Amino acid sequence: MNCLAPSILSADFARLGEQVQELDEAGAQYVHIDVMDGMFVPSISFGMPIIRSLRPCSDRIFDVHLMIEEPGRYISDFAEAGADLITVHAEACKHLDRTVESIKEKGLLAGVALNPATPISAIEYVLPKVDMVLIMSVNPGFGGQKLIPYTVQKIRDLKKMIDAKGLKIDIEVDGGINLENVAEVMDAGANIIVAGSAVFSGDLTENTQQFLHILNS
Ligand code: DX5
Ligand code: ZN
Question: Is 34 a catalytic residue?
């Protein structure tokens, strides 16, 4: 099944709870939550207290994308704050296997993210332990960037690797996705679609429904 994961990084933070509710009512299955530490990426976004406050606003999957150094230090905190799915960057973990294990031990879904330049071979051996791989289609850190074209081939290569191993793992794509290019990344193999600026600029409900229409067709 194809799912939409609107990224609240592009939300109006003064109306965050309301907007998360609106996304839920419009049918988006995930809430993509970008946590940035000013080290792994240049920006600082928000952390556990925001996630905790948003939790009563929606039962949808809280998809927490950790763009932080050594995220293994904070898995319990994000689990307690209300994450359903925690994604860590392969580049940010000295001991990726251990960090993935600690997410699973909390009973949560585990994702691993790859920056555009990181080869998929970096996660080959840990693949059977993860529920999702996040392919970054921009360099992480900011919303509103343009998709880097070679990442579409990377999605295709990852899909091939997953299928060859007989695994069932979701592929999420994040960065620069809009109504014009979403079909292309889905065709390459992505089934969880993150969209920030394309969902939040203009009418939230209308944009969400337009995405879902393409995702379901
Ligand atoms: C980028 C974040 C993305 C971002 C996507 O570092 O991980 O989730 O919010 O925003 P758009 O869809 O505007 O590229
Ligand atoms: Zn993200």
Answer: yes
